[in-house]
Amino acid sequence: MKQWELNSVTVDLNQPALSTAASWRDEWLRILTERIPAVIWTTDTALRITSSLGAGLAAIGLVPNQVVGLTLFEFYGTQDAQLEPIAAHFRAIEGDSVSYDDQWDGRTFYCHVEPLHDSGGHLAGTIGVALDITDRKKAEHRLREAEARYHALVVQIPAITYVDAADEDRSAIFISPQVEEVLGYSPEEWKADPGIWTRLLHPEDRDRVLAEARRSKRSGEPFKEEYRLLARDGHLVLVHDEAVLLRDPT
Fold first, then answer.
1. pLDDT tens-digit profile of 57-84?
2. Do 176 and 238 fall into the same domain?
3. Are residues 180 and 234 in the same domain?
4. Closest listed residue to residue 90, CA positions, set 53, 39, 51, 46
5. Considering the domain boundaries, does residue 249 fall inside one?
6. pTM for the whole thing?
7. Are residues 168 and 94 in the same domain?
8. DSSP secondary structure letters along 26-66
9. Lower CB count within 10 Å: N or C terminus of the chain?
10. Residue ranges of the chain whose pLDDT lies below 70
11. What CA–CA distances, in Å, run from 146 to 151, 156, 179?
């Protein structure tokens, strides 16, 4: 996801135009709306747009205040009061703060809308802000696709894939469904029994294999061994086991 940075800005408060709180507020609002990739808008209580500002407008082909005067119904081209953005503004009129995702011109925005009050504290309408999260959503979609492809690979290859804790018993964090076909134990049973792998090792192989597992853990070198496991029905299964140590990036 693209990172945005608001560079520091120095304003001379001794200038007459900036000597009042109102002028400072206006200057700060200008900085926000010109530099932050967002859209900020207000409506009146009838949900007619009274302002629309922000650098994010360009991404959806609009200029500041271009849609002022339109109702939200006209902006979205609908009479459906249950459309999520419109319903959110009605809730804001009633006093709620509401967040939702919205699609504008092929881009995804995270939106937040709240009641807007005038200087006397009376309800004047709503105020909203929308942040463009299109790149983040695309990255999340690519990640989900990659995870789905990896899962499909794991469950289809003719091998048992696993992730174990780096403890003496190599207790399972994840193990693929093939373990049930090969050894007769479901993944749930395998994960629920931390000592199952050690217990199923053939007695003649156990000391050698456990010693190699400890050496691999200490050195960080790959684990590679052939040994026998006792399946649930009592027959022996010869396995070739290769594993690498995963380290916490922190």
1. 888 888 999 999 999 999 999 999 999 9
2. yes
3. yes
4. 46
5. no
6. 0.52
7. no
8. HHHHHHHHHHSSEEEEEEETT-BEEEEE-GGGGGGT--TTT
9. C
10. 1-34, 154, 169, 248-250
11. 9, 15, 23
